[in-house]
Amino acid sequence: MHILVVDDQPLNCTLLKVMLVQQNYEVSTAANGVEALAILAQQSIDIVLLDVIMPVMDGYETATKIKQLYNDVHLPIIFITSLEDHSSFEHCLEAGGDDFIHKPFDKVILTAKIKAHSRTRKLSLKTHEQNKLLEYHYNQTEREHEIVEHIFNNALENQHKFTNNIDFHLSPASMFNGDMCLVGQSPIGSLYCMLGDFTGHGLAAAVGALPASKVFYTMVNKGMAVSDIATEVNAVLVQLLPGHMFCAATIIELSSSGKSVSAWLGGLPDAYLIDQQGSVLKTLESQHMALGILEGDEFERELIHFEVDSSMRLALATDGIIETTNADGEFFAEQRFIKALASKPKVTSQDVIAQVTKFAHGSKQQDDLSLVLFNCLAVPAAAEEQAAYSRLPFNFSLTLNSQQIKQTDPVLEIVEVLTQVGGLKEHRSDIFLLLSEAYNNALDHGVLGLDSDIKNKEDGFIEYYQLREATLAKLVDALIIVDIRYCPDTLSLYFIICDSGNGFASTDSNANSNNREHGRGLSILEEIAEQVTYNSSGNQIEMCYRLVQQQS
């Protein structure tokens, strides 16, 4: 400890210095307040022993200036005084004094007081260092958060480019959002949207958004199907995230014409297809586990498809909306969410969030709040250079037996082969959807003889896919034939998918019946292909897809 003795009497300074040096203290001396302030400015002093009555600058003024100049860390001031009146003591305390020592000096009392104030000084120094360290880390954290926030904003915020189709709200519970809303347009004009909710909230939850967004935008730019995007995002998250983290998500694709939607739903609350008044036309229930849980061989790629028109909207929300609580602990819940959607014509995301906030009535936000209202409007395709289509005609065919049907999913491999042909890569999404729907219909309803009505029951999807797995395991003596022909003169692709199943009744020409008997995707196929026909037995589908339709 370094002690400064300030006294205009040399004898007092000498006496105090000898007593303190014997106690192993470092001692400096000053004859008045001006000298004391000069020493304090040059050296680190831990305790000041200050006389009251001095020339040039007395102890009262000196104490006041010391406290003003050195207020970051507590610097104890012990007044040296021969005064006995209470008013003098009060004046010393008002000036900044912390204690008193009476003249003549008592060595025992002096030593005790210095030891007591040295402990206070050390504690103050330690606290000051800790505060400086905390301030440093706080500033570092703030800087890092600014950098990360900048990266997140540039990586994730693409929604504002599609204001006609997307009305969204993202409200994080902390600085970083564990929810993400990704929007992108494929080369052929389809509009994709992914609403995701990572486990928890804050920075730890948000870190998965960067790799997920990179996969999403990369695959959208390649025109990949929704099922491919879900599969690839899942593979990345399984590899990167710890076991307790995952991402509940809904991924949708709206065709460029605005007439059809494909969706993969994994773990988020129910989505709703609504009209302009907010009435629910269709409830879209989650069919799959969240992304980042299942390994690739277990992952479920199945999509749902349905037709829409310009009067319809899709309402997607994370569980932060329905799990918002009020002061009584009640949840906002699904029914209030549905009522909020119907609270006014063409309701906006801000209208809905305002009702959620009003319901919470000041309760602290516990989770990220995210809402997307997706308008099913036509989306003009982005301008692209005209594709250089191959001028060579070709056709190929493959026949799959029971064993091959069980062990392979040929659609993706076929699409990979086709998109190597000049000009076909830009049509990858449509080609995949045509082949996938036709092949899966041939397998599920033709070869396996499954009934789609099972899906309409409660937990029907689970029952359907359990039955599918069991039936497929027992499959024998079955065939699926895929034939593809490319005609460069008309810039057309012709697909024929034939199965060894019983087909459906040829006397029933109703399109809805065909859709029910032969699978969910007939309307989607007719939307994409120029022509879709079945043979008389109902176990063969022929499709003509015109490439030139995408050049308008």
Throw out a few tags for this protein.
39% helix; 552 residues; 20 strands; alpha+beta; five-stranded antiparallel beta sheet; 17 helices
Kindly report the spatial arrangement of strands forming the biggest sheet: 2-1-3-4-5
Mean pLDDT score: 84
Portion of residues in beta strands equals: 15-25%
Instruction: Indicate the structural class.
Output: alpha+beta
Number of strands: 20
Detail the poorly predicted runs: 506-520
Query: How many separate helices?
Result: 17
Largest beta-sheet details: 5 strands, parallel
Report the principal-axis shape: elongated
Helical percentage: 25-40%
Question: From the alpha-carbon coordinates, what is the Rg to the nearest angstrom?
Answer: 39 Å
Describe the 3D structure:
The protein has 552 residues and is of the alpha+beta class. The chain contains 17 helices and 20 strands. A 5-stranded parallel β-sheet has the order 2-1-3-4-5, sandwiched between helices. It has a 5-stranded antiparallel β-sheet with strand order 6-15-14-11-12. A 5-stranded antiparallel β-sheet has the order 7-8-9-10-13. Strand 7 and strand 8 (191-198) form a beta hairpin. It is elongated, with a radius of gyration of 39 Å. The N and C termini lie far apart (86 Å).
